[in-house]
Amino acid sequence: MISKKSSVIIAAVLALCCIFSAVYISSCSKPKKGPSCDNYVCENGGYCSVDSFYQDLYYPLAGTPHCNCPKGYQVVHCNCPSGFEGPNCASAVVAKYTKTWDVKQTVIGSDTAKAVGTITNYEAFLLQSATPTTFFINNICDSNDYNDIICTIDSTDSHNFTIDTLSAFHMFYQHFKFTQAGYGNISTDDSTITAKIWVRHLNYNINWQNDTLVLVMTPHHQ
């Protein structure tokens, strides 16, 4: 027969066990607080996300400094829509293009042999268009007749762009056109643009001439 005193002791021990059990369970199941998108502002339609890494790697995450990311590392960043970049998607990618550039144009291939190696220096004017992913080149090939050449910035790498072959439709004269798609890129420090175009034009002898041109552009300084 268990005495009243013994019953009280047993009840107290059971109560303590329940308390310690509850504390243990809650401490083990309590989630660790990680990075979150609270109060993290993304502009121009960008949205915030938290990326987790499941292996050690060097990850140049868009919108964040490059980092050596260990396993379990998490980072908050903005996913930017096409045409914008930067930690908060505040910068238009076209901004690094739209200025006046000094151009060194070299003929690297031609069906007129003596034209190969010809170098022409002039200024080109890169202007923003109506969309954040395109811009115009004016005065290409050192002619004010050749304006509004449409260039489209690559959606995955804003340092690359293509040159629209339909731009000849907008030219004033029918003696010049692109014969295939051109392309180009801007250096990672935004200091040099290199582009390649293929053109067909009337030369000084009023003969059709097909040239392959490389354009190297550097910012114009007055």
Quick tags:
mainly beta, eight-stranded antiparallel barrel, two-stranded antiparallel ribbon, 14 strands, 12% helix
Structural class of the helix and strand makeup?
mainly beta
Number of H/I helices: 1
> What is the β-strand count?
14
Strand content: 35-45%
Description:
This protein has 1 helix and 14 strands, in the order αββββββββββββββ. The protein is mainly beta. It has 2 domains: 33-89, no CATH class; 93-219, Beta Barrel (Lipocalin). The longest helix has 26 residues, at 4-29. 18% of the residues are buried.
Quick structural overview:
It contains 1 helix and 14 strands; from the N terminus they run αββββββββββββββ. By secondary structure, the protein is mainly beta. The longest helix is centred in the first third of the chain and has 26 residues, at 4-29.
Would you spell out the secondary-structure blueprint of this structure?
Elements (H helix, E strand, L loop, with lengths): L3 H26 L17 E6 L4 E3 L7 E3 L4 E6 L4 E2 L5 E2 L7 E11 L8 E10 L5 E5 L10 E5 L6 E4 L12 E11 L6 E10 L5 E12 L3
Antiparallel strand pairs: 1-4, 2-3, 5-6, 7-8, 7-14, 8-9, 9-10, 10-11, 11-12, 12-13, 13-14
